[in-house]
Amino acid sequence: MSRKVGIIGCGHVGAHVLYTISLMGIADDFIVVDIDEKKANADRQDLIDSMQFLPGRVSVKLGSYENLGDRDVIVNCSGKISLLIGTTTRLAEMQHTLPTVRSYVDRIKASGFNGIFVNITNPCDIITKEFADRLGLPKGHVLGTGTGLDTARLITRIADSTGLDAHSIQAYMFGEHGNSQFAPWSIVRFNGLPLDIWEATHPDKKLAREELSQAAAQGGWITFQGKHSTEFAIALTAARTVRAILTDAKKVMPVSAELTGEYGESGLFAGVPAVIGKDGVEEVPEFPLTEEELKRFHECCDGIREKIELGKSGDFDYVKIEK
Predict the structure, then answer these.
(1) Class of 148-321 in CATH
(2) Which fold does the domain 4-144 belong to in CATH?
(3) Which one, 24, 61, 273, 303, has least CB within 10 Å?
(4) Is 228 a catalytic residue?
């Protein structure tokens, strides 16, 4: 049975999502939607030319929003990355991405799409909520990549600091996929061993916690400043999410998920660990955060709410509310 994926936007990110999902053998039937058909067709041809080296046969077609109705998963990668040049806030994209999403989301809904919708487009938490509100899909069927990549950056930096293998480390970035996100250190584990216990027996390797958290939050800007895009790691983040959905993995992983009371928050999407399976976000288990960590999470969610209201007002002067 074909595993059908739709990709909206075939720029740096969308093209790499298409390539990565194909290379990993996660899906085999793609529809790509982009206003630049010449670029999209070139990416299609490039992938078709790679067929001999892929794990299986893939079908790639160019289409419109109306053709997305039969997709198992849609990955939204649309955006205008040039708006981020000269700034250090993903919110800068909202002046373009929010009106753009509003211009085509009803066409997706009209197609009859009832699969799982994964959003990458920034500001991720705000745009993900916009899709959820307008598509009208069941709870959990719309999610964002959120702090998935930021979490990977954090784990990489912890691995560098401790000398431990990244696969042995469990840690998460919480909150906004933006500057206010943070790492709750109380839940960091090394194959089950709490960080505090590990540090007590390795006094020469105490972690610079806030510095590492900030490095994870700001890591994307290092990549962006060098080539005006981020593409490899976010494509892998999206591919892992799509694989968890299509294989019904029940995998606990960080995404931008709808909160309906978890951690005392509701009415928004934020980056938290969630159980991902065939129905998208199937559960948001509540990790035992400390009082200070929970306070910081609430502050982060308040910031997300401010930006949601900013989007509703149509006043895209993002500078005035960026912390």
Answers:
(1) alpha beta
(2) Rossmann fold (3.40.50)
(3) 61
(4) no
